[in-house]
Amino acid sequence: MTIIRAVHKIEDGDEAVVAQVTLAESGESFCVESHETILAAALNAGVDLAHDCKSGFCGSCRIRLLEGEVAYDEEPLGLSEEERGCGFALACQARARMNLRVAAELMPSDRPVPVEIEAEVVSLTPVCPDILRLRLRPEGEMPDFQPGQYINVVTESGATRSFSIASAPSEGEIDLHIRVIPGGMFTAGVLSGIEAGETLRLHGPHGLFRLHPEDFRPLLLVATGTGIAPLRAMLAALKEEPDGPPVALYWGMRTESELYLAEEIAALGAALDDFTFVPVLSRAPGSPHRSGHVQDAVLADLPDLSDHAIYLCGSPAMIAEARGRFLEAGASVNHIYADSFHFAHNL
Q: How many Å apart are CA 147 and CA 252, to the nearest integer?
């Protein structure tokens, strides 16, 4: 297999390029112009390449270059140097510099179809100074979703706000953990007037971040902030499995008062055969918990990650650093799944 290097910047004044991208698995091909990303051209041609955030954070649209080279306007955070060195690129950010032959995944055919949902507000509770927990009960049947996916809350203006689902499908409620943004249109505006019994419009589920039970590997779950929400959904689903894998969950927060889900996580983990929970605090010297950054704690405990399936959820900075360092520690590039939380300023 020949891997041609990736060019990392498009120079001003480049002539327009029309390239052909061929999928190695099926032989299917489509054309892409120099102003288009590979993902945009694929979707325009009816080729449903795997994707999610379209912003270069999550890594869901990762492809492997077998022939040809690509360029980026800016380096995407969702791709580590190690992955670039192995010939990977992000289709949502990459532009073709010449004809390409790539290995690429398509959107999974078994993913739940997003639907419109009317849901009653069960409760809206502050769980720590800047995080709210919103519990919703759908009218009628629970929508079909996979642990790890997210849902959109639709405002009266039609604007949407995306939040990971923290509950498992069997729990009968949609549990959302929402960080309050001072002055935010949704969190400080819409939610401030919501009461139990009112109805919210939802749309979903969305997203490729989900539990992969087919991996048959020990699970390493790593979160910062409200990135714990989809991992909580995975734990709730795993406790229903009689022969689940070993699970280690590392949760990074700033102070002990922010560990709003610690007791619940411990209770969910107690139902598993082999569960380890490690809170890691970045601004709590003297705390009985581990201190520092969550990715450092993981590597101190697990220097060899070659056997693990790894789920990363939270800040883009954590995910970018963890992805690269975990690959250096032997993690399989095909068994790292990430959901990067990048907040809208007017949230």
A: 20
Give the number of domains in the chain: 3
Instruction: Give the domain-ending residue among 183, 206, 229.
Output: 206
Look at the alpha carbons of 268, 236, 296, 294 in this order and tell me if their dihedral is positive or negative. Answer: negative
Our CA angle for 176, 249, 345, nearest 5°, is 40
Residue 162 in domain: yes
At 118, the amino acid letter reads E
The token pair at 322 is 């963890």
This prediction's pTM: 0.85
The CATH number that applies at residue 223 is 3.40.50.80
For residue 333, count other CB atoms closer than 10 A to its CB: 16
- Domain of residue 233: give its range: 213-340
Q: How far lies 202's CA from each of 74, 131, 266, in Å?
A: 33, 20, 30
> Per-residue pLDDT tens for 168-225?
989 999 999 999 888 777 877 778 888 999 999 999 999 999 999 999 999 999 999 9
